[in-house]
Specification:
With 324 residues, the protein is of the alpha+beta class. It is 56% helix and 19% strand. Among the domains are: 5-86, no CATH class; 91-191, 2-Layer Sandwich (Tetrahydropterin Synthase, Chain A), CATH 3.30.479.30. A hairpin with a 5-residue loop joins strand 6 and strand 7. It is rod-shaped and about 185 Å long. Helix 1 packs antiparallel against helix 2.
Length: 324
């Protein structure tokens, strides 16, 4: 943060000295007094410093730590005190991409980010030469160690858990550094191209399996519903006919449809029953002498019609002879 107070105070002291001392530029002594006043004004104005709300000022007097000051306006001893400003806001530190081998021998490349805040500025500055560089280097090592202790599936399924493990390792190491780690998050995981293709095939096979299972379950439920509907229709004689008429009505709504009439099984059974009854009736209608005595079983339908035709022709021949 830019500190305008020293400049403002210096010009203010210079103006006051000019009106109070009234330097005569023709007299060397008067000019010397005014220059001395300007030097003292510069020293006094440089003693005022300003720290922003997010900053802490570490004051070192002749190289020895004195105090932590700020935020706001504070004073130091000119030419004796040195001030170092420390930002106490949360800062982000990128962890460069690291290639590591997982527990199941899969090479992966990962990168992460650290969210860091300085809680004790004096410890962070005095005990660590460069706390940003130090924590970045240790986080890289922790990242490789954690990646090597878990499998690829665990990394892909639980990035947050892997980040928390790295955070725990780094947090345990930086005790006393005056730093607080807000979080460590894994940003990206880069896999080999051949492994990506294998994983894509696996995902496709898994989804196809789910689709087949879902279809088979749907077929089973449809069969159960059809069986239940058949049982319900069997209890009502006209239910099947109503269902057939409803189906024909739905098919006839479009002229492009071709309606195929299917003969029910009951009708076929009735026709077969009628066909089995006709030979007995025809046999009873024949004269007694024409009845075949050797047949112990009913005649077939075709043979019965043939026999009836021969009998009718014989009767017609006899009628014509009588007329003649």
């Amino acid at each position: 943060m830019v500190n305008p107070l020293p400049t403002i105070l210096f010009f203010l002291f210079a103006i006051i000295g000019y009106f109070v001392l009234g330097p005569n530029f023709a007299a060397p002594a008067s000019i010397g007094q005014y220059l001395a006043w300007l030097f003292v004004s510069m020293i006094l104005s440089s003693s005022l410093r300003i720290a922003a709300q997010w900053e802490k000022a570490l004051v070192f007097r002749l190289g020895r730590f004195q105090a932590v000051k700020g935020p706001g306006v504070f004073t130091v001893l000119p030419m004796l005190d040195q001030v170092r400003m420390v930002d106490t806001r949360i800062i982000t530190i990128d962890i460069p991409s690291q290639q590591a081998i997982t527990n199941d021998n899969v090479p992966v490349t990962t990168d992460a980010v650290i969210f860091l805040r300085v809680s004790q500025p004096e410890d962070a500055v005095i005990r660590v030469q460069n706390y940003v560089h130090a924590i970045r280097q240790y986080a890289q090592t922790a990242l490789r160690d954690v990646i090597g202790s878990v499998t690829l599936d665990q990394i892909l399924a639980d990035r947050e858990g892997v980040g928390k493990k790295i955070e725990e390792m780094v947090d345990a190491e930086i005790q006393g550094w005056g730093l607080d780690i807000a979080a460590i998050r894994i940003q990206d995981i880069i896999l080999p191209e051949d492994l990506k293709r294998v994983m894509a095939r696996q995902a496709a096979a898994e989804r196809e399996k789910r689709a087949n299972i879902t279809k088979s379950e749907g077929d089973r439920m449809a069969a159960e519903n059809l069986a239940a509907a058949a049982k319900m229709m069997a209890t009502a004689p006209g239910a099947l006919q109503l269902r057939t008429l409803q189906t024909l009505d739905s098919l006839g709504s479009s002229q492009a449809n071709t309606v195929v009439m299917a003969v029910p099984v009951e009708v076929m059974g009735a026709i077969q029953a009628i066909g089995g009854m006709m030979p007995n009736k025809l046999a009873s209608a024949l004269p007694q002498e024409e009845k075949p005595a050797t047949h112990s079983t009913p005649l077939a339908l075709g043979e019965s019609f043939k026999l009836a035709g021969q009998t009718a022709k014989k009767d017609e021949d006899e009628g014509q002879k009588q007329k003649a």
